[in-house]
Amino acid sequence: MGLAKVLGSFLTNQRGNFALILGIMAPALFGIVGLAVDYSIFLSQRSQMQEAADLAALAAIREASVNGWSDATANAAVENFVSSALSDGKYTSADYRATAELDREEKRIRVSVAQDGHGYFLMGLYLQHPQIEVISEASLASATNICVLATETQGGGAIELAKKSAIVANNCSVIANSTDPKAIDVDFGSGIRAQSICTSGGWNGTSNSFSPIPIVDCPQVDDPLKDRNPPAVGKCNFKNIKIKFAAVLVPGTYCGGISISGNAVVTMLPGVYVIKDGDLELTDNSTLIGVNVGFYVTGTTAKIRFDNSSNVSLTAPKKGPLAGILVFEDRNSPTDRIFEISSKDARKLVGTIYLPKGILRVRGQSRFADLSDWTAIIAREILVEQGPEIRLNSNYASSDIPVPEGIAGKTGHAYLTR
Fold first, then answer.
1. Are residue 350 and residue 201 in the same domain, yes or no?
2. Strands 303-306 vs 311-315: parallel, antiparallel or unpaired
3. DSSP string spanning 270-292?
4. What is the DSSP code string of 4-26?
5. Which of the listed residues 107, 124, 140 is the one where a domain comes to its end?
6. Could you count the other beta carbons within 10 Å of the beta carbon of residue 314?
7. Helix axis angle, 3-12 relative to 14-67, nearest 10°?
8. Closest among 189, 187, 193 to 205, alpha carbons compared
9. Number of independent structural domains in the chain
10. Rounded to two decimals, what is the model's pTM?
11. Rounded Cα gap, residues 371 and 313, in angstroms
12. In sequence order, what are the beta bridge partners of 338?
């Protein structure tokens, strides 16, 4: 059989055609598959490296804030963190280099993580050196005083402002620990102004509603009063107290609560008032005055309600179990009880309002704390609605009421800037 005849027979055979085509296309097919695998590995590596760089930058800046801004210390912290984070990865054949650059004036750290030496199938022929490089920057917000801390860690509206309401925090911070995208939720026409605004999640509202714009993804701030022991709860000294005329009250355990109404003007003598199994209630045009007084609210039904026609002027104790604390909610209380302070005149509230399980609601055309040297709010959630302005000061040196540890000059917050 001649050569021409053999070749013609091969070309007319379908199986021969397929084999020929496959032989011609095989290198291209293998190349496409190899590039797809390479690219998948590349993306996985870059994502893993970026996460390691972000966490290393945050870890390094916190280390710097505690142990000083040393290049050697920062680089050691970054190298150790990145090495540990990437050593357990799916692809460990590569070499990694991690470096840190410090900006002491701006309190910023720039972390670079580079990869080389990974055995890619084809991309290794085209990738430059380093094969992958990611960069992360972290900054340290100035250490500030805490004026508002919402301790709720999940859910939107941990701090919520609605219907032309405002929070003004002078020389202090407003902080939300919730990781929800709307952890701070501010309605149109409402606003927050503070030295810094920080949220572990995100914020909702217009940029004009905030000054400055909130910092997002902030580390959660520990409750500064979590280790504070509550006062002792003794036997009932008074039961179901209802007052409609002028009166003077003495410290003790008030079972069934205290109700003040009418035009009554009630003066509280200095000390601790335990409100048990009932409300501390202020209605009508009544007035409550107390110098160096603190309230411990305990029992499944106990809470505080000051309505919008009432007047209140209170300063916290100078010493004792409630030193620096105006209101202390029992940590064993049911979650989400509402404590309402909507008095038309609540301009003097010197001390800390501490509601670890409760919601502080301020509403109506009330004037809140603006004549106080300092006021701090630590609550699970804070709701401000229908027009009030909460104005919180931090003039600690002007007051003889002690500031609880952790509220004044809390450590600055580390956050990612790139």
1. yes
2. unpaired
3. SEEEEEESSEEEE-TT-EEEESS
4. HHHHHHHHH-HHHHHHHHHHHHH
5. 140
6. 21
7. 60
8. 187
9. 2
10. 0.72
11. 10
12. 359
- Expressed as residue numbers, the domain containing 351 is 145-416
Q: How far apart are CA 114 and CA 182, in angstroms?
A: 35
- Give me the sheet containing 132-140, strands edge to edge: 95-103, 108-116, 132-140, 414-416
Determine the Cα–Cα distance for residues 127 and 122; give it in Å rounded to an integer.
Answer: 9
For tokens 């960069």, name the residue.
135
Distances (CA, A) of 278 to 242, 253, 294, 314, 333: 12, 11, 16, 20, 13
Parallel, antiparallel or unpaired: strands 375-385 and 414-416 = unpaired
Query: What would the pLDDT profile of 339-387 be if each residue is shown by its tens digit?
Result: 999 999 999 999 999 999 999 999 988 889 999 999 999 999 999 999 9
Q: Which two tokens stand for residue 274?
A: 């335990």
Alpha carbons within 13 A on the beta-carbon side of 194: 26
Cβ(378)–Cβ(225) under 8 Å?
Answer: yes
Cβ partners under 8 Å of residue 121, min gap 6? 34, 35, 37, 38
Q: Report how many helices (DSSP H) and strands (DSSP E) the chain contains, helices first.
A: 3, 27
Closest of 216, 211, 175 to residue 381, by C-alpha: 175
161 shares a domain with 106: no
Reported as a pLDDT band with limits 50, 70 and 90, residue 7 is very low
